[in-house]
Design brief:
Helix content is 44%, strand content 12%. With 501 residues, the protein is α/β, with parallel strands linked by helices. The longest helix has 27 residues. The N terminus is likely disordered. Its main location: cytoplasm.
Length: 501
């Protein structure tokens, strides 16, 4: 062997792979312990197995099914929803401005593209924007909010364009988390909850304070439950934040205006910062009425509108748009301390800016074609069709599940999901325990292996002890959704029979 060869032969294997011969600097023992506590059920072990099954099917493996249907996540276009024509036309023009000379594009799409490009550095969406977002788009967002809320003023300086709503939520929570031990910030989140919240709180080392939605009353909010949660939390932390998802994820409920007023009063009484996750505001199937927290706050008068601190969030990923991959969104902050607002602006500046194509897409959502413009008729037809189709599928899902003994499904009033309760035999619960799994995880994994349907177990979102659920999106095309519902129904009957004998 050469000298170099002898050295390599005697070198520890991990050193050849880039590690120090004295051991790695970063190990499971030395890494940030908060990260290890993070869990995100929507993309957890069920989805990992679904990906493996898809690969096995492609390689010719024989399964009891011919495809894996992923009903685990609210990814509209992955489920087959077609993009809205006007949105993609303008984005195409912004991305490749030479198309502005093409007669195939309507003039209003070209006008939108020119306006957006003129606001970009070098007239290119490949340039960075201001950290808070492109100014004319923030102005359009403010005008959209004013129209939505019946004329209540919105200040563009209070608008931040963000990488989807998730990034904005994490950023606000970073500002709010402080203290040590019993003074550590407590954050009230609904149970069931969207795992972004629990994962972020674990990552930040904050205290998760659970309050339970009332499943027997269509997942409604309960004042007595908030008071219980806050009273108990004050024994070990400092509850400072109340998070609400409206319409609900994973539960699909739409809270009444009265309940929103109750939330605002409670926040004022208990001195809580309000976070309103409103990304499903167009996905309302019950009475077609969405009440924004900001609108209700200001209609309650100065006693509340001048004191209650509120951050509200919206996104281009849901509603009729379904443009998840562009990562567009915004937040509006109300009654934020000026010094804190300066710190917020600094914090978003660290990441330079939100994706500019996502900002451009957001502008089209808040500033869609008007009745006197050539794209208006097609835009309204497509938008209406998507929302009407979702409303039909929401009703179909509720009715199908409630026809199955052992499945109880509340009305899907909004958003894109259902969270039915399933009754499981004790033998199945015991079997899951033997396998080291939650019973609904065992149920969902069996469903995936036997029927090729990928759902998320309710334990990943939180649920009352002794109850079991799963979350399913209603996004698959209607005919495929019928197949999904039939497969789940048949599986539940078969599963129940197997563990009841």
């Amino acid at each position: 062997l050469s000298v170099l060869g002898r050295r390599r032969a005697n070198m520890p294997q991990h050193a050849e792979n880039g590690g120090s011969s004295l051991g790695r600097v970063l190990t499971l023992d030395s890494m940030n312990p908060n990260v290890k506590r993070v869990e995100y059920a929507v993309r957890g072990p069920i989805v990992t197995r679904a990906v493996q099954l898809e690969k096995e099917l492609k390689e010719g493996a024989k399964k009891p099914f011919t495809e894996v249907i992923r009903a685990n996540i609210g990814d509209a276009q992955a489920m087959g929803q077609k993009p809205i024509t006007f949105l993609r036309q303008v984005l195409a023009l912004c991305t490749y401005p030479e198309l502005l000379e093409d007669d195939k594009f309507p003039e209003d799409a070209k006008q939108r593209a020119r306006r957006i490009l003129q606001a970009c550095g070098g007239q290119s969406i490949g340039a960075y924007s201001a950290s808070q977002g492109i100014e004319c788009i923030r102005q359009d967002v403010s005008r959209y909010i004013e129209r939505r809320d019946g004329g209540i003023a919105s200040n563009p300086d209070n608008i931040y364009l963000t990488t989807g709503a998730s990034d904005a939520i994490v950023t606000i929570l970073k500002l709010l988390v402080a203290g040590q031990g019993s003074t550590r910030t407590g954050v009230l989140i609904s149970i069931p909850q969207y795992p972004l919240y629990s994962a972020t709180l674990a990552d930040l080392g904050a205290v998760q304070v659970n309050y339970y939605l009332n499943e027997d009353n269509c997942w409604s909010l309960d004042i007595a439950e908030w008071k219980r949660a806050v009273t108990e939390a004050r024994q070990h932390c400092n509850p400072r934040v109340l998070c609400i998802i409206i319409p609900g994820n994973p539960t699909g409920q739409v809270q009444s205006r009265q309940r929103i007023e109750d939330v605002i009063r409670f926040a004022k009484e208990e001195r809580l910062f309000l976070m309103a996750d409103e990304v499903y505001q167009d996905n309302v199937y019950k009475d077609n009425t969405f009440h924004s927290f900001k609108k209700v706050l200001f209609e309650m008068g100065p006693e509340y509108s001048s004191t209650v601190e509120l951050a509200s969030f919206h996104s281009t990923s849901k509603c009729y748009m379904g443009e998840c991959g562009f990562r567009g969104g915004y937040m509006e902050v109300i009654n934020l301390d000026p010094g804190v607002k300066a710190q917020l602006t600094k914090l978003v500046s660290v990441r330079l800016c939100a994706p500019v194509p996502g900002q451009a897409l957001l502008d089209l959502v808040v500033n869609p074609p008007q009745p006197d413009e050539p794209s208006h008729a097609t835009f309204m037809k497509e938008r209406t069709a998507v929302l009407a189709n979702l409303a039909t599928k929401a009703k179909l899902t509720e009715e199908a599940f409630n026809a199955v003994p052992g499945i109880k499904c509340n009305p899907v009033q909004g958003a894109m999901y259902t969270f039915p309760q399933i009754t499981l035999p004790q033998k199945a619960i015991d079997k899951a325990k033997e396998a080291g799994q939650e019973a609904d995880m065992y149920y969902c994994m069996r469903l995936l292996e036997e029927e090729g349907i990928c759902l998320v177990p309710g334990s990943g979102f939180g649920q009352r002890a002794g109850t079991f659920h799963f979350r399913m999106t209603i996004l698959p095309p209607t005919e495929k959704l019928k197949i999904v519902l039939e497969k789940i129904s048949n599986f539940h009957v078969r599963f129940t029979k197997e563990f009841s004998e």
